[in-house]
Amino acid sequence: MATEITSETLGKFSSTDDVIAYYSDAATALNGNSTIIVTGSNTGIGKQTAVALAKLGGIIILGCRNIEKGQNARNDILNKLNVNGSMNNVHFIQLDLGSLSSISSFVKEFNHKSQKENWPPLTHLICNAGLFPMTNTISFNNNITGMENTFAISHLGHYYLTKLLLPNLRRSNANGGNNRNNTTRVIMVSSGSHYGPLLTKDMTSKKEVLEKIVYPSSTLTSVSKKKNMGGMGDDDNTTNNNKYSGTKCYGSSKLCNAIFAKALYEREKDNNIHCASLHPGSLIATDIARDNFFANLAFKYIISWFTKTIDQGCSTTLACCLMPVEQLKGQYFDDCQVKNPGKMVYNKKAGDVLWEISEEILTNVGFGSESNLNRLGSLKMSSNL
Ligand SMILES: NC(=O)c1ccc[n+]([C@@H]2O[C@H](COP(=O)([O-])OP(=O)(O)OC[C@H]3O[C@@H](n4cnc5c(N)ncnc54)[C@H](OP(=O)(O)O)[C@@H]3O)[C@@H](O)[C@H]2O)c1
């Protein structure tokens, strides 16, 4: 099997089957040896990623916030794959990444089921869930006062989930680490939007990140919606203190995903946990524009003619799941290959600042390190977070 990816082999329009064929040894090795969590897998790229991985025979966990949608997705995936009725390797566990309590409950239930049903080690965590704010009015998280919701879900939720699953991921190496194809990885589905426009370009300044991304003031509302086409057409690359932009908010949340992948790798590489971030493709016809009627129509029925299919949009995720771990190194991928990211992504200080902020928030709301251990030991649902 080739170890280097070249454009002749995998590229922009590779399907998930192409990726599986290219990494056939690694794909075969997943069967019976791997448990894989995919967040936001009831629809879009996450669901199709789960379909592609479920075919390979590992245990697939769909982490979705809506119980009905999650269960329907599970049934749908099994019905699609289950030609002879023998597959039962897809499971749904409720996960709302906007709620720290829900994340704790997810991990607790995952640990319980994993032991009870003797699942193989957790080898892949795919942080795919995301949302695109379709207006230029700030949406605040329901649980953490003053925190912007896109940051809360796309970054902080995934940060906390990864943190709670680190013991599982580290343990997996003890069981499966000898098989390099099976070595543990955390994959962050970022976006080309991380290049900009952004709420701030300076991710090395804690103050900037806190004030512009994490806790934007409620007074920073509404740029002309007309000008910005419901938050999609904003090409102003500067930050105006009196204005807020859904597009910039999305870009900054995706930048956090890419910075986190690199920072996590640097912290966990000695534990043999490997990471990557990636761009699935642009303007793929998923439900991402669901909050804007016209944008949603355009995505699904016009733009989709010119962009990757949803399946092609999963190929880079799949490549990151299957390629030899040595090639990941916390890097940013696009079209199944390494690509140069925005300059903040590999900036150590930016990684440290994001880490410090995330830890401080968790501690301030009672979900810091000590409380994590207690919570996973005997979870009390008293907190609303
Ligand atoms: N489509 C594109 O062109 C494109 C381009 C670049 C990057 N991406 C990235 O690709 C990833 C997948 O997006 P997609 O295009 O497949 O969008 P999508 O169809 O809207 O799927 C997003 C998924 O995230 C889930 N989600 C949202 N908030 C959540 C929460 N609080 N807790 C748990 N899950 C939550 C959604 O669940 P519900 O159904 O319950 O809302 C849904 O399952 C995202 O990270 C996105 O930023 C997409």
What attributes characterize this protein structure?
385 residues, Rossmann fold, 8 strands, alpha/beta, binds NADP nicotinamide-adenine-dinucleotide phosphate, 14 helices
What's the short story on this structure?
With 385 residues, the chain is an alpha/beta fold.
Present the secondary structure layout.
Elements: H1 16-22, H2 24-30, E1 35-39, H3 44-54, E2 59-64, H4 67-81, E3 90-94, H5 100-116, E4 122-127, H6 149-176, E5 185-189, H7 206-214, H8 225-228, H9 246-268, E6 274-279, H10 293-301, H11 310-313, H12 315-322, E7 332-334, E8 337-338, H13 348-364, H14 369-377
Parallel strand pairs: 1-2, 1-4, 2-3, 4-5, 5-6, 6-7
Antiparallel strand pairs: 7-8
This protein binds NADP nicotinamide-adenine-dinucleotide phosphate.
Number of domains: 1
Q: What top-tier CATH class fits best?
A: Alpha Beta
Low-pLDDT residue intervals, each spanning 5 or more residues = 222-241, 378-385
In the sheet with the most strands, the strands line up as 3-2-1-4-5-6-7-8
**Beta fraction of the residues?**
5-15%
> Count of helices?
14
Query: CATH homologous superfamily name?
Result: NAD(P)-binding Rossmann-like Domain
Structural class: alpha/beta
CATH topology: Rossmann fold
Cα Rg = 20 Å
Distance between the termini: 47 Å
- CATH architectural grouping: 3-Layer(aba) Sandwich
Cofactors and ligands = NADP nicotinamide-adenine-dinucleotide phosphate
**Element-by-element helix/strand order:** HHEHEHEHEHEHHHEHHHEEHH
Would you count the extended β strands for me? 8
Helical amount: 40-55%
Shape estimate? globular
Average residue-wise pLDDT: 87
